[in-house]
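Running co-folding for magnesium ion.
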Amino acid sequence: MNGASLSGLVKAAHAAVEYNKDEIASLDQAIGDGDHVFNLLRGFGAVQALAGTIEQLPFHEALKLSSQKVLSTVGGSSGPLFASLLLGMSRSLASSADREVTPSKAADAFAVGVAEMQRWGKTGTGSKTMMDVLIPVMEEFSKLAQSGASARQILVSLPRVATDGCQLTRDMVATKGRASFMGERSKGHIDPGARSCEVMIGAVCEQILSDTTESKNEEVHE
Ligand code: ADP
Ligand code: MG
């Protein structure tokens, strides 16, 4: 993994969010102020404008630069949250001497990133936020990596966990963020941040899976 791989993941996540833009916007119009997906798309645009620089960097530095760009462009509650995730992951990966990103290093980095988000957002699961997707995904990622699961098993499992977490937000009453102003009336709607995270996790896993399959095929043909 290097800056070029990160750039490919950002592109895939951006395309998936763009594809689901109308749905995420209407979820946020129902229980928020409607800007979540547009904030996110602005961030993706800004990070992609830096692709030339990002692609020359080691993976952890590329994550750090992306985090700074997300913080300065996304805004809302989600800007600092996503920036914390990327910065936490960058710090965790920077602390490893060897630059190879194994499943267990990636799981540790994701756990540090999610912990950083929780430090900022001060919530766990059950408040009807993006954490209802990210925390179960982080837990499953750590469990699978520790049990020695293959990259493929991990990449197939995590999107399913993300979908389950996202669906669970529908029946929750929001107790954090703007949606909490609606109290009981927030019930019956999926949280927009949970849905955008589900979409991004699905796209990132699918992209890594296809990169891994391609490099395996290249090995076979060599
Ligand atoms: P804002 O609510 O400030 O307009 P955004 O529109 O950028 O922020 O993002 C809204 C999303 O942020 C929500 O759908 C929810 O998932 C997430 N969110 C809000 N508050 C928190 C929090 N304290 N911790 C984690 N996620 C949160
Ligand atoms: Mg908003």
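Result summary
The pocket of magnesium ion (ligand 2) is lined by residues 28, 32-33, 35-36, 76, 178 (CB under 6 Å).
Residues 192-221 form the longest helix (30 residues).
Job closed.
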